[in-house]
Amino acid sequence: MSLSSPLFERSHILIGDEGITRLQDSHVLIAGIGGVGSFVAEALARLGVGKLTLVDHDVVSSSNLNRQLVALHSSLEQNKTDVMANRIQDINPDCEVATLNAFLSPDSIPALLSQPFDIVVDAIDSMSSKTALLETTWKQNTPIFSSMGAGGKLDPSQIRTGDLMDTTVCKLASQLRRHVRKRGVGRGIQTVYSVESNLPPLPPEAVDRGRARVVNGTVSYMPSLFGLTLAGLVANHIIGDARRVID
Q1: What residues does each domain of the chain span?
Q2: Lowest mean pLDDT: which of 2-6, 63-67, 101-105?
Q3: Pairwise CA distance, residues 209 & 198, whole Å
Q4: At the topology level of CATH, where does 6-148+220-239 sit?
Q5: What's the mean per-residue pLDDT of the chain?
Q6: Is residue 99 classed as helix, strand or coil in its secondary structure?
Q7: Short-list 43, 206, 32, CA closest to 130
Q8: Is the full-model pTM beyond 0.90?
Q9: Is the distance from CB of 78 to CB of 101 less than 8 angstroms?
Q10: How many CB atoms lie within 10 A of CB 82?
Q11: Which residues of 165-202 are buried (b: 16+ CB within 10 A; e: fewer)?
Q12: Does pLDDT of 179 surpass 60?
């Protein structure tokens, strides 16, 4: 895509040719295309990231309508990755989008990450898969940006960013930190989390895959804010020092 494309008209003011070029040359893996990951994907596509790989095993359901970018009445029962890929192509046709409609299990993660990704975004829920994804990327020295729990939260002013090892209050972050430390993982995983205490979930209920799990309440804006904040962290990592300097 030409640097003079209308897609870059406003962002070019801030990051110039070099920043746009760095974005175009980047390949980002987004694991999880739900309430958080869908907003990461769209923000990066609109910014001009050249290649996105989208991974999610699920289809759009009616319970997603309150918070997920892929969720419309017209997209119900469609694969989330396919809906997101079509949306990206309508926004930025020059963005190369690869999709994997599969459950990202600890066993499948090493094969997926044998491909060269510049950055990995973790927006998945499964603790075992999340742990394996963070461990594998960290040990490969691949930059990874991870979302902690947006469910059970209402207050956007309590969203924070920081290294996983420095997070506070968030129960998911605490559990995840304990798991990855056992696997030798240290500092270097950037996260988006909240210091708001979780509001209580519904009692555990059975799901199609795995044991019963609790269902957290969610609102329209919290997952999207987590996702857009993650996208901002990713974008600034890619852009680096390629930004407008004011004399």
Answers
A1: 6-148+220-239
A2: 2-6
A3: 25
A4: Rossmann fold (3.40.50)
A5: 93
A6: strand
A7: 32
A8: yes
A9: no
A10: 19
A11: eebeebebbeebbebbeeeebeeebbbbbbebebeeee
A12: yes
Q: Can you give the length of the chain in residues?
A: 247
Long-range own/partner contacts, residues 80-83 (CB < 8 A, 24 or more apart): 80/33, 80/34, 80/38, 80/56, 81/33, 81/54, 81/55, 81/56
What are the tens digits of pLDDT across the range 73-91?
999 999 999 999 999 999 9
Long-range contacts of 106-115 (CB under 8 A, 24+ apart): 106/131, 106/132, 109/133, 109/136, 110/136, 112/29, 112/55, 113/29, 113/137, 113/140, 113/142, 115/53
Going by pLDDT thresholds of 50, 70 and 90, the confidence category of residue 5 is: confident
Helix or strand (DSSP H, E) at 80: helix 80-91
Give the other-Cβ count within 10 Å of 76's Cβ: 14
CA angle centred on 210, ends 207 and 213, rounded to 5°: 55
Cα–Cα dist 90/113, whole Å: 28
* Mean pLDDT to the nearest integer, 154-167: 98
Closest CA to 58 of 76, 40, 39, 36: 76
- Return the closest-CA partner of residue 19 out of 243, 247, 246, 245: 243
Give the position of tokens 């119900």: 76
Q: Is the pLDDT of residue 98 over 90?
A: yes
Cα 48 to Cα 21: distance, rounded to the nearest angstrom: 9
